[in-house]
Amino acid sequence: MIDPRLRTLRVLHAEGTVTATAAALHLTPSTVSQQLRQLAAELDVRLLEPEGRRVRLTPAALTLVEHTDVLQAQWERADADLEVHRSGSAGLLRMTGVATAVAALMVPAVRHLRSRFPGMTFHLGEDPGEDRYRMLLAGRTDIAVVIPTPDSPPPDERAFDQRLLLEEPQDLLVPDQHRLAGKRRVELADADRETWIAAGDPADQHRLLLGAAVAAGFTPRIEHGAVDWSAVVALVAGGLGICLMPRLAPVPPGLAVRRVPLAGAVRPTRRLVACVRRGSADQPVIGRGLAALAEEASALG
User: Which of 158, 205, 284, 293 is most exposed, with minimal Cβ within 10 Å?
Assistant: First the structure.
């Protein structure tokens, strides 16, 4: 019900370029440019200014984005109120998240929701190459389970409602003949001279390793990398390096590796956060999804 050109401006504010905005909204760049020209003409204000090969939003455009955020949140609430008058027991729930959240939280949550609400349908994705916040902003998913990084929106960002699910410790994963394999606990600094594997999602897990290593007083020597955890474990089992392993990430059976818990002042953890568009949590389908994720997180916690 909100002018789609306002959403285009909002996504441009997040993406920074017309090309990226077009890709996020599945439009052509010329369509994006045309929409914004038409909007500027109707409002009789300049919305964009050239800045090299990019464009910059004018102060008027930034004001309009602030109002659009309010309108979008109110529309999400209105849609939630209307949902009360609908069936309430059916609907599509789309979720995206990091790999361990998919396996440990999202799949069990969907299994329980299916048993309670047979009319609900689901679409789950890992989307490792995507910015999951922007997927929410563009309306391409309903719930994103993310690991906040320094580049993530702040907790009070007006476009999003962010809820902590759990804090997941990191273990040290080493070959079973490694010098640290027999220890009950080790400090991260004990592995300062080791060869490391850049393991998991580069956007969050790799940054976690770098930040923790700096806090422990060293820079890790990284020589290999993999995103899929089965590949990561195979690299460790092959003696090619060690890595940080999230507690929820499974270790395939039959591989000669050991998980060693970390002790001391630097014990890296990662926070799994459920994020939705602000105002949308009152929609029954999305609200049920958030509640189911929280139940699974509580059971693990």
Answer: 158
pLDDT of 243 over the 90 cut: yes
For residues 137 and 11, is the Cβ–Cβ distance under 8 A? yes
Neighbours of 97 (CB within 10 A): 28
Dihedral-angle region of residue 176 (phi above 0 means left; psi in -120 to 50 means alpha; beta otherwise): alpha
Q: What is the pLDDT of residue 184?
A: 92
Quick one: pLDDT at residue 143? Answer: 98
CB-side neighbour CA atoms (13 Å) of 51: 11
Indicate the residue type of 237: A
pLDDT tens, position by position, 122-180: 999 998 778 999 999 999 999 999 998 878 899 999 999 999 999 999 999 999 999 99
**Backbone dihedral region for residue 264 (phi beyond 0: left; psi -120 to 50: alpha; all else: beta):** left
Other Cβ atoms closer than 10 A to 10: 22
Q: Is the pLDDT of residue 30 over 70?
A: yes
- Side-chain half-sphere of 140: how many Cα atoms within 13 Å? 17
- CA-closest candidate to residue 24, choices 138, 133, 160: 138
Residue 152 phi/psi, 5-degree rounding, is -75, 155
Alpha-carbon Rg of the chain, whole angstroms? 22
Structure tokens at 259: 């998980």
pLDDT band at 204 (very low <50, low <70, confident <90, very high): confident
